[in-house]
Amino acid sequence: MNSTCEDCKQPFVFTASEQQFWYETLKFWVQSHPKQCISCRRVRRAKRSTARDEQVYRQRGGT
């Protein structure tokens, strides 16, 4: 399936193996489709992880 990334506007292919992982392992709805290419998804996850780590650090008394 061909799509365009909402973040970088580059075309990308949602491969059969990615679809199988999404629908069988992650249990996403069959109507679900990725909005970002895999590179942008990785960047997005890394940012979320960093923000979460910072929040935990602050909650535990870090400055």
Keywords:
63 residues; mainly alpha; two-stranded antiparallel sheet; 2 helices; 51% helix
Describe this structure in words.
The protein has 63 residues and is mainly alpha-helical. The chain has helices at residues 16-25, 38-59; strands spanning 2-4, 11-13. It has a two-stranded antiparallel ribbon. The longest helix is centred in the C-terminal third of the chain and has 22 residues, at 38-59. It starts with a strand and ends with a helix. The mean pLDDT is 89.
Summarize the structure.
By secondary structure, this protein is mainly alpha-helical.
Topology as a string of helices (H) and strands (E): EEHH
The class by helix and strand makeup works out as mainly alpha
Stretches where pLDDT falls below 50 for ≥5 residues?
Answer: none
According to DSSP, the number of beta strands is: 2
Helix content: 40-55%
User: With helices defined by DSSP (H or I, 4 residues minimum), what is the helix count?
Assistant: 2
Radius of gyration: 16 Å
* Strand adjacency order, main sheet: 1-2
Write the layout of secondary structure elements.
Layout: E1 2-4, E2 11-13, H1 16-25, H2 38-59
Antiparallel strand pairs: 1-2
